[in-house]
Amino acid sequence: MKKQSIANRKSLDKIKNEDPKKYDELNRLKKIRSATSSLRLYATKEELKKISGDIKEVNEFLENHSNLSKEELKKLRFERFKKKRGRPKRK
Questions:
Q1: Which domain of life does this protein belong to (predicted)?
Q2: By CB distance 3.0 to 4.6 Å, which of 30, 43, 71, 90 could disulfide with 47?
Q3: Tens of pLDDT along 16-57?
Q4: How many domains does the chain have?
Q5: Closest residue by Cα to residue 27 from 35, 5, 44
Q6: Is 15 exposed, middle or buried (0-12, 13-18, 19+ CB in 10 A)?
Q7: Claim to verify: residue 38 and residue 61 sit in the same structural domain
């Protein structure tokens, strides 16, 4: 393992012990960055446009429902997604 990797791991462990919320946020951002880079590599321009439109729509939805709890938001998003996409139910 490189010295930089060891230093990064130690600083992440330190953050995890001191501030778990910040650690979770850093991990979330890391996942977003990796997903974004993968999308840019493999998605076509049309797919990227559709994805960015979906993201804007979700952000507007979250702004309009910002007073709800996390559980209520998850439930609402799932219901909205299910209706919009028309996913078949599993049996």
A1: Bacteria
A2: 43
A3: 888 888 888 888 888 888 888 888 888 888 888 888 888 888
A4: 2
A5: 35
A6: middle
A7: no
Q: What are the pLDDT digits (tens) for 51-73? A: 888 888 877 877 777 777 777 77
Q: Look up the pTM and report it.
A: 0.45
Domain annotation covers residue 38? yes
On the question of pLDDT at 6 being above 80, the answer is no
How far is it, in rounded angstroms, from Cα 83 to Cα 75? 12
- The tokens for 21 are 């919320």
Spatial separation of the C-alpha atoms in residues 64 and 10, rounded to whole Å: 40
- Three-state secondary structure of 49-82: HHHHHHHHHHHHHHHHCCCCCHHHHHHHHHHHHH
